[in-house]
Amino acid sequence: MSKTILLNQNWIFSKEGHDEPVTLPHTWNAIDGQDGGNDYYRGTCCYTTVLPDIVLPENGRAVLQFDAVAMTAEVYLNEQKLAEHKGGYSAFCVDITDALRNGSNLLRVNVDNSDNDTVYPQKADFTFYGGIYRDVTLHVVPAAHFALAENGAVPVRVTPIVTDLDARRCEVTVEAAVVGAESVTFTLDGQQTSVAVKDGTARAVFTLEHAHLWDGLDDPYLYTVTARLDNGETETARFGCRKFEIDPQKGFILNGHPYPLRGVSRHQDRKGAGVAITKEMMEEDMALILEMGANTIRLAHYQHAQAFYDLCDEKGLVIWAEIPYITMHMHNGRANTLTQMEELIVQNYNHPCIAVWGLSNEITAASAVNEELLENHRALNDLAHKLDPTRPTTMANVFMLEITSPILEIPDVNSYNLYFGWYLGELDQNDDFFDTYHAKYPDRCIGFSEYGADANPAYQSAPPKRATIPKPTSASITSTWQK
User: Fold this and answer.
1) What is the DSSP letter of 473?
2) What is the pLDDT of residues 345-361, one digit of tens each?
3) Among residues 322, 362, 371, 372, which one is catalytic?
């Protein structure tokens, strides 16, 4: 049988020749990354640990899973480089079987958050923390097992399609990625079927009559499907049966009824902890968001922890999930945007809370809308639809972007970050903007993805008022948006 070992204890952290023992999750910017400046440490640090004794079953494998390492990781076992991962927010797996030796096995992870022109993000208004800031686990599996893909893809993928809302009929396709097995037995809601494995995948289709729908805050019901191999290996996946629609006239629709979305954006950040937040901190974030009365969250501006997506599933929040393709397009970063989009989707495919995949955020704030930028977005849009035909794509546009820009034609849904009444103008100009946009493009869906005021505690006051802060000087703002 497979065994999973948590490897968060007994690490040595090395920075600029100084060593100290640490426990994961860990970031080296927990203090200097929160003083409001851009002087926090960015460079390469090292984490080392000695792996516990590993007894492999016959023809078994040993695989490390890193839930997130920021921003670039190089993984060595016994000084042999086994993998490199670029992107600080997604999980990845490393098969270490062939590098294992009898006795002690030294694991070393070089972690780099330094400035570069290939790995996103590099320009944004949040800290690019460095460290191994989510869990690390060791998976010891038998010869026949559920796949532990390098890109962190879920081994059991579930696609629920509500085919008849009135009858609550849902067709559920379940796919399992396996290694070394000839068949898989799936069990769902009292139904069971065994199917053969073909090209490493087993696929079954179930029909749920009178399905219990995942219905947002009112009733976030979750099903669990179980996949089992002949040797007893099992894997489960949770999912929800729901139907999302976005209509340019009616807005967001959940399971056939209007469901206006009102919520917040969330970062994974806490004072004194930085990005290395605990499950308890995530639960507190969720409690605060629900206390506000929100029913949606934009998980800005990168992939968040699986534990938080799970909370959103359980509580019924509707989620916008996105990659950190933000502010400034980098000529050498195209491949990284595609990799991060792939990892975001294949790792989070089963979460019923996720309604849209976000392609970018304010990418034209420091970049021209040229063919290279457009092509990068077309490639991301095509990839998202290829990996997940069931969800629309979106992007958050900076408020200076003209509504006639060709980049707005790429995603299925557009949104704008508008700060009238904060950076410039008056609050009611937000209404004017959307009225103008909808009149010009009545068949396009449009959302409101960010608005003021900022959450900076320096700008708080008992009677709400706009802070005295520098205004943008772009001529396009005054000519197009001010009235």
Assistant:
1) -
2) 999 999 999 999 999 99
3) 362
